[in-house]
Write a structure and sequence with these properties.
Layout lengths: L1 H28 L19 E6 L14 E3 L8 E6 L4 H17 L5 E6 L4 H10 L5 E4 L4 H6 L6 E5 L5 E6 L4 H11 L7
């Protein structure tokens, strides 16, 4: 008798355990890995300093000269798309033209696109930018502190920062034109979309 009860209990526990595992796996499939939570969303964007590779006179960021640095404070008061990338990143190649087209379409509206190369050499980042025709503001993080302050987990990763300096959201992975337009609308006050 006792062995039948133990067998039933074992089967019941195994079934219950399998059900829990399957439920967790099912829940995991509903999570978008590009929308990883970030403690900075809704807070002021951290200040940064990165070596300027190319600037834009229209935004008061002069063309790079030896020793010039880009700071977040230079960009306050504008909607900012802050993209972390690297020349060795395959996904960054996918989104290079998308970011450039977005920049060209919205720069006259005061939107600023800034690309900060991380874990990269300035010469490699410049060669990548030239190859893909990037004309927006570019810098390289030599010290490696900026991605730490922003909680960057990989490249490409993009932060959408409102005019008041608060972070609207973060997106991990290559951007699409539709995503950029959605985030721009939200930075300008449109209701948040799922």
């Amino acid at each position: 008798m006792r062995s039948i009860s133990q067998h039933k209990l074992t089967v019941l526990l195994a079934t219950l355990g399998a059900g829990i595992v399957l439920a967790l796996l099912g829940w995991g499939l509903t999570i978008n890995p590009n929308k990883a939570p970030n403690a900075l969303v809704g807070r002021q964007a951290p200040e940064f300093e990165a070596l300027l590779l190319q600037g834009d006179q229209d935004f008061g960021i002069s063309t790079a000269q030896t020793g010039e640095y880009l700071n977040l404070s230079q960009l306050r008061g504008r909607e900012l798309v802050l993209n972390f990338w690297a020349s060795w990143c395959v996904s960054c190649r996918e989104e290079a033209l998308i970011l450039e087209n977005f920049w060209k379409q919205h720069r006259s509206e005061g939107v600023v696109v800034v690309g900060i190369a991380i874990q990269d050499e300035a010469s490699a980042a410049q060669a990548f930018a030239k190859h893909f025709g990037k004309t927006y503001i570019l810098a390289v993080d030599e010290a490696g502190s900026t991605p730490i302050h922003y909680g960057v987990t990989g490249v490409p990763e993009t932060y959408f920062i409102r005019k008041d300096g608060t972070i609207l959201d973060k997106y991990a992975g290559p951007l699409t034109p539709e995503l950029l337009e959605k985030y721009l609308a939200e930075m300008r006050g449109a209701p948040r979309q799922g």
